[in-house]
Amino acid sequence: MNLFRFTCLLLPCFIFAETKSFDFKDSKGLNTVIFQLDALLESINGSASGVSGKIDFDPDDPAVTKGVIVLESSSLRVDNPVLQEHMHGDDWLDVTKFPKIEFSLSNLTRLKVQGRSIHASAEGKMTIRNVTIKMSIPVELTYLEGMLEKRNRIPGDLLIVRSKFSVKRDDFGIRAGEYLDKVANNIEISINLAGVFPSK
Amino acid sequence: MDGARLSFWATSKAIKEEIPIVAGMPELGTQTKITWEDQFIHGIETPILGVLIMFALLLVRYLQKKKFEKSIQIDGNK
Fold first, then answer.
1. Residues in Cβ contact with A35 at an 8 Å cutoff, skipping those fewer than 6 apart
2. Total structural domains in chain A?
3. What is the pLDDT of residues A99-112, one digit of tens each?
4. What are the chain A neighbours of B45 within 8 Å (beta carbons)?
5. Do A71 and A100 contact (CB within 8 A), yes or no?
6. Best residue in A80, A82, A139, A162 to probe B by mutation, most B CBs within 10 Å?
7. Model ipTM?
8. Residue A115 falls within a domain, yes or no?
């Protein structure tokens, strides 16, 4: 009888808890990752547009947010063609051997709601060049219910993910300990991604 | 980019544009649209190359002058 009562109490939670799977392959081509690192003569600024991945988000329980954001390493671009060739080459990112940069999000911690946005720490694993490291990244999530219709003319919701963080190339074995006087170890990354959840 | 810039030659330029996430509602936030435009932008190689060419021309002129003086001297001796 107790089990029956317990099930009855929990049942509404399962019925109403709705985890939405947001797709980050943006048809508008606006999902971009911006990176910057210091170099001997100038700072290297670039962007990458090959963003994809899915994030499962429950507006009623954002702490359990999880998913994967994937970046095609060959989509990284800088203004100098020689620099870009080196960056994509075997010694640095080796984009043919390691075509993807991945962040696997396991959950959110230290959640703080500010207006429409949720500020949190995204706990997960970053994989670059087949080297996986546990990372905690500060993120800002904005859930825009029903706004997909105004953006893409499809009924549904939007999830905006913003973050600024840095990675060390040493940690991922990208010419670790080498050329530190010419190319900085710290790579500043800025993301501003929109995920879509079309309602069926 | 206008004026002098301390950097290497570049063949493209990133043009950044802030686009509202939801059209007509910029208060909901914006996304940066980056368009790479092909454009040659001079870097420090340009003045370095200029100085090298200047020295090369001066050297050629100096050698020509030397050769000319030598030929006058030979003609004078004859």
1. A45, A46, A47, A48, A76, A187, A188, A189, A190
2. 1
3. 999 999 999 999 99
4. none
5. yes
6. A80
7. 0.74
8. yes
